[in-house]
Specification:
Strand order of the largest sheet: 1-2
Shape: globular
Low-confidence stretches: 1-10
Radius of gyration: 16 Å
Mean pLDDT: 89
Distance between the termini: 26 Å
Number of helices: 5
Helix content: 40-55%
Order of helices and strands: HEEEEHHHH
Amino acid sequence: MNLSGSGASAKPGKPIEDKDYVKWIEKIPSVIDGAMDVQCRGDAAVYLNDGHHIHTKGSGGGDYWRIPITRRQHQLCHSKGNKYVESLHLIDFHEIVCKLLRSRFGYEIPAGDFELAARAMVKKAEENYGK
């Protein structure tokens, strides 16, 4: 129950997780420049990228809101913001989410605004695959 009188909505539920999707995202070259990070896993060096949430977990952003970028690019997103990085590289993170979900699950990208399309596609993935 909202007692603040501001009309604010309740806090979102627990973000949807999909460990297989996260592992898949980590293996994709950066959507910004095609780079891969070298990371140590045990005794081996492996090429993996970060899975950056374009909507934070605190705002309900689950694993289907992740995009593959390098650690340095990830830090830039957190220090300067997603909009800054998008404008710097002339990309749209919502469009990238749509393309990733199309590639992984075969979903058609709805026509129109990419933010609305991404929301619809993420919702579908969460209903079909998320935990």
